[in-house]
Structures are given as structure tokens and as C-alpha cells.
Design brief:
The chain contains two helices and seven strands. It is of the alpha+beta class.
């Protein structure tokens, strides 16, 4: 068998695998990755322009939404078993526990998602 006939099989990760990797110390709190179609994907470092834009949009969204929604900058949104993204912002339905318990906000919870990019 030569190298050209080798077939690579990739294992797709699900969100449970993703968090087990974090619990085991394989992924750290400072690792900037998200789960995209079952693959770990690096997220670009945050530059100063990005920080300023996030701050300005956070203020505008929080003032606009008031008590009607939860504005969550750069926090995870679980789309399905193979996708957990960290968008610039997610605006979610209000919940008394602010999503502390249970799953992260998902498609049924999220009212608006926006990405901020340099």
C-alpha cells in the first residue's frame, strides 16, 4: 500500500467532547477556540479596535434592550451538537438565572447574533 491510497478519517467533536477537553486541561480558559462543524477552530486575537467596537456596541445594545433581553458580548451560543460559536454579541431572551444553569443560549433563545471583525 502506498501513501496515495491512505484514507484519513477525522473524528468530529461534539459540545460534550469540547467541554471534557476543557475539564481535562487540554483546553485552557485563555485558549481562543470555538467549535465549528465538529472541528476546533482558532479565533483571532482581539485587537484594540475590536475592543473599542465591542465596548461601543455593548453600551448601545444594553441601552436599547433594557430589561427586555440579555446582551451577551463574546460569550458562547450553542447552535447544535457540533457547533458552539462565540459571536461578537448575542442578544437573548431574558432568563432569571442569566443562563447560569442548563444549556447555553441556543437558537430558540437568541434574538440577534452579530459578529465584530477587524
Amino acid at each position: 500500500m502506498d501513501d496515495t491510497s491512505a484514507v484519513l478519517t477525522r473524528h468530529k467533536l461534539n459540545v460534550d467532547d469540547f467541554y471534557r477537553m476543557a475539564d481535562a486541561g487540554i483546553l485552557g480558559e485563555d485558549d481562543r477556540v470555538e467549535l465549528l462543524d465538529g472541528k476546533l477552530t482558532d479565533i483571532a486575537p482581539i485587537g484594540q479596535d475590536h475592543v473599542a467596537t465591542i465596548n461601543a456596541l455593548a453600551r448601545a445594545l444594553i441601552l436599547a434592550c433594557g430589561e427586555l433581553a440579555i446582551v451577551s458580548p463574546q460569550n458562547p451560543v450553542r447552535l447544535d451538537r457540533l457547533n458552539e460559536r462565540q459571536p461578537g454579541f448575542a442578544v437573548s431572551r431574558p432568563r432569571a438565572d442569566f443562563y447560569r444553569t442548563g444549556d447555553r443560549p441556543g437558537p430558540g433563545d437568541v434574538l440577534l447574533v452579530t459578529e465584530v471583525a477587524d
